[in-house]
Specification:
mainly alpha; 2 helices
Length: 74
């Protein structure tokens, strides 16, 4: 039985939305957790400059962007 062309396109769009929506949520959670851990580490070490906060957030951002790049190249 053949599928209708319109339904196939909507299925592809839905799959893409789920895939990239999941990547977006993963980026948000990863960067958020990295920021929280950096903030807690800076507070525990009593640092005046948020060095670990910035370091962890930038590392998480770089990692998630790399993962996004790898998923888009597939």
């Amino acid at each position: 039985m053949a599928t209708e062309p319109g339904k196939e396109i909507s299925k592809k769009r839905r799959n893409a939305f789920i895939r990239y929506g999941g990547l977006g949520m993963q980026m948000l959670l990863t960067i958020g957790i990295a920021g929280w851990l950096g903030y807690k580490l800076d507070a525990w070490l009593s640092l005046r400059f948020p060095a670990f906060l910035l370091l962890f957030v930038l590392a998480a951002l770089a990692g998630t962007l790399y993962k996004l790049y790898r998923s888009l190249s597939k």
